[in-house]
Design a protein that fits this description.
Layout (H helix, E strand, L loop, with lengths): L5 H8 L9 H11 L7 E8 L11 E5 L10 E4 L2 H9 L4 E3 L1 H8 L7 E4 L4 H4 L3 H5 L18 H11 E5 L5 E8 L4 H17 L10 E8 L5 E2 L2 H5 L5
Parallel strand pairs: 3-4, 3-5
Antiparallel strand pairs: 1-7, 1-8, 2-6, 8-9
Helix pairs in contact: 2-8
């Protein structure tokens, strides 16, 4: 059984485990109970009412956080020719083809997201084992395999705070919403964007209740259960 420290236990004491908190109240509480010296990340955890073993019930997509994640996102782009020049102009941190592939095969992983043009995927494919297990492999479904003319927008979105979500083997989706230092209304804006994106990604094969439970936590803090009704009714419109 895990033994927690005094600060964690004090934080747990501020959370009513039997209560379902409205979104804003939960965010304010998450900020209050964060006790680490570093700027913790506020995370959203959703238990989904779908079967992760069923190909028709997979949930995957991208959410654009209007207030970002509170960190500099390092963007790598696999491209060549004019597309490579476009990527450099758009502000990608690393741009290349065979040279970058060899560098990654040699152990280089100092980037947060990878984007590729379709013509590069034949070569990038051999990095699947390296990038796949780290969630960095470019994929058309997540919007990270894009034609040259769409590169500037994809790079801009990645820098803004583009987060991918995917159902795991236990039917849970985990997502960062920003930092504890963010103002509550900015975390609310990011939460709203995530809820909208996941709602749009509902698969045709989903049956019954799509999202079963939702909770917030911080990197080191206790979980805070969200009231589903007001959470799922969040909209930026």
């Amino acid at each position: 059984m895990t033994k927690h420290g005094k600060k964690y236990n004090e934080a747990v004491g501020l959370v009513d485990r039997t209560q379902l908190y409205p979104p804003l109240e939960a965010i304010e509480l998450a900020k209050k109970v964060a006790y680490s010296k570093f700027d913790e990340t506020v995370e959203l955890h959703l238990r989904m009412g779908v079967d992760p073993r069923d190909a028709t019930q997979q949930v995957r997509g991208v959410a654009l956080l209007p207030h970002g994640l509170g960190k500099k996102v390092r963007v790598l782009v696999f491209a060549q020719g004019e597309a490579a020049r476009d990527a450099e102009t758009a502000g990608a941190d690393l741009v290349g083809g065979d040279d970058l592939i060899k560098k990654i095969e040699g152990g280089f992983l100092d980037f947060d997201t990878a984007i590729a043009t379709p013509d590069m995927m034949g070569k990038v494919g051999r990095l699947g084992k390296i990038l796949g297990r780290r969630g960095l492999m470019p994929n058309p479904k997540s919007g990270t395999v894009v034609a040259g003319e769409n590169l500037p927008r994809a790079i801009s979105e990645a820098r803004q705070g583009r987060v991918e979500f995917k159902l795991d083997k236990t039917a849970i989706i985990h997502l960062p919403l920003g930092k504890v230092s963010f103002e509550a209304d900015k975390l609310m804006g990011n939460l709203t964007a995530v809820i909208e994106a996941i709602s749009r990604a509902k698969p045709a094969g989903a049956k019954g209740q799509y999202i079963k439970t939702a909770s917030l936590t911080t990197t080191m803090g206790p979980g805070i259960k969200l009231n589903l009704k007001p959470t799922l009714s969040l909209t930026s419109g």
